[in-house]
From TrEMBL:
Residues 430-445 have a biased composition (Basic residues). Residues 418-455 are annotated as: Disordered. SUPFAM superfamilies: Zinc beta-ribbon. It comes from the Bacteria. Keywords: DNA recombination, DNA-binding, Metal-binding, Transposition, Zinc. Residues 346-412 form the Cas12f1-like TNB domain. This is Transposase. InterPro entries: Cas12f1-like_TNB, Transposase, Transposase_put_HTH. Residues 202-317 form the Probable transposase IS891/IS1136/IS1341 domain. In the C-terminal section; belongs to the transposase 35 family. Residues 34-75 form the Transposase putative helix-turn-helix domain. GO terms for biological process: DNA recombination; transposition.
Length: 455
């Protein structure tokens, strides 16, 4: 009884607080952190959630098309508010759209609004919003007002969702704040519910261990090498899993070719194989995320400053395919390296570090990546022959020997901060073609170009 009372964390802000003034303040706060729990819907609930997930994807894509059409044809920018009116009309005519809770539909439109705002924000790395594919993760968003969370006992909680009622979830960690919104999703293995929580956590003024600096070298053989000699690595998939995945993917490819040739619908067998692929990939992805979050957590707790080589992971893992006119060289080798880089999750690691650093007060510093693996960390002699093999480093000038990755990590630790780190659009535009620029920029540019070319 006591436990139930203490731990019950209602989702609705007006349940948490008594006084009117506090309530007004609470309604205005945004989620600043996320909490994800394994959800255990019944068979019926799972089926309905899955169909809602498909409806959400359809709604997102349709709304995106509507916005693109309005811009191309009439140079008008549609927003979520205007599109909510169209959604209300669609709900009257289509039963399957009406089945989706109205608030979820509105939330999808708000997400699309946010996707556009991110694209227009010069500081944000996001590109233009794209269509959600059928193979994408199923997810159904709910605003905080539409749901309620209750703890049942030490292990279980329930979340009340509109139209479905209470769904059990495993209470694996404290909520630690007021729930502002929720997303129910299926990643191929299991259902999850993610709560956007306002925890009110702010970064401490100073790190608990001031003055501690570590350099980190991200590698393909060893995922993370630290300047103090530690090396962390983990394999995320077993050889059997790799074989199985290759078999399934080739079967899926064959089925897809056959389907295209006769123009039929995707067969049940093909759908089963796709689900099996998604399941295996999700398992691998979860292991990778776990490792990187673990590593980021340790580094942020132990060090006031974490230094990384500034890598453009996206540009580094671009394909070497080239064009038909100018085919690339060593395409297969580059594809293998790309796969290895993506497999180690360099990009995810950066995000995990930034996320954890918010609560520990750790400073994440990017340094120029050039020559960190060829320079001797003791005398500064830089030569590609210094690196004897993948793992061994032996300086040709002073004879210093070390693990090559650790030597690189020491160089990263001692390097000066990159002068002006490129962020947002600056990074984006380096690797993007002109056709993908935001509409306003593209219009200005075309007018300018035509003005120059036509005297
Ligand atoms: Zn040396």
């Amino acid at each position: 009884m006591g436990v139930e009372q203490d731990c019950a964390v209602p989702a609705r802000a007006d349940w948490v607080v008594g006084s009117y003034e506090t309530k007004c303040i609470m309604w205005n706060v945004n989620a600043d952190t996320g909490r994800r729990y394994r959800l255990y819907p019944t068979e019926e609930q799972a089926q309905r959630l899955a169909s809602w997930g498909q409806t959400c994807r359809w709604l997102y894509n349709t709304a995106l098309e509507q916005r693109q059409f309005a811009w191309q044809q009439r140079k008008r920018t549609l927003g979520a508010t205007a599109q909510c009116v169209s959604l209300t009309e669609a709900r009257k005519e289509l039963d399957w759209v009406a089945d989706l809770p109205a608030q979820s539909g509105q939330q999808v439109l708000r997400h699309l609004d946010q996707a556009y705002r991110n694209w227009w924000d010069p500081q944000h790395p996001a590109g233009p919003p794209t269509r959600k594919r059928k193979s994408a993760r199923l997810s159904v968003p709910f605003p905080g007002q539409a749901i309620a969370v209750r703890r049942v006992n030490r292990r279980w909680g329930v979340v009340s969702l509109p139209k479905i009622g209470e769904v059990k979830f495993r209470w694996s960690r404290p909520l630690g704040g007021v729930v502002r919104n929720a997303v129910v999703s299926f990643d191929g293995v299991a259902w999850h519910v993610g709560f956007g929580v306002h925890a009110g956590v702010t970064a401490p003024e100073a790190h608990a261990r001031p003055g501690t600096v570590v350099g980190v070298d991200r590698g393909v053989k060893v995922a993370l090498a630290m300047s103090d000699g530690r090396m962390w690595n983990r394999t995320f998939s077993s050889p059997g899993q790799e074989r199985e995945l290759a078999r399934l993917k080739s079967a899926a490819g064959r089925q897809e070719t056959a389907r295209r040739n006769c123009g039929a619908k995707t067969s049940n067998r093909a759908q089963k194989i796709r689900a099996e692929i998604a399941r295996t990939e999700a398992k691998i992805r979860n292991r990778r995320r776990d490792f990187l979050a673990w590593a980021a957590n340790r580094l942020c707790i132990q060090h006031a400053t974490v230094k990384l080589e500034g890598l453009h992971v996206k540009a580094m893992t671009a394909t070497a395919k080239g064009t038909i006119a100018e085919p690339g060289i060593n395409v297969a080798a580059k594809a293998g390296l790309n796969r290895a880089i993506l497999d180690k999750g360099w990009g995810i690691f950066e995000a995990a570090l930034a996320n954890r650093a918010r609560t520990t007060g750790t400073r994440i510093v990017k340094v120029p990546a050039a020559y960190t693996s060829q320079r001797c960390s003791r005398c500064g002699h830089t030569d590609r022959n210094n690196r004897e093999s993948q793992a061994r480093f032996r300086c040709g000038s002073c004879g210093y020997q070390a693990n090559a990755d650790v030597n690189a990590a020491i160089n990263v630790r001692d390097a000066a901060e990159a002068p002006s780190p490129l962020t947002g659009r600056a990074v984006r535009d380096r690797s993007r073609k002109a056709s993908c620029r935001p509409p306003t920029q593209r219009r200005r540019r075309t007018a300018l170009e035509t003005g120059i070319s036509r005297p």
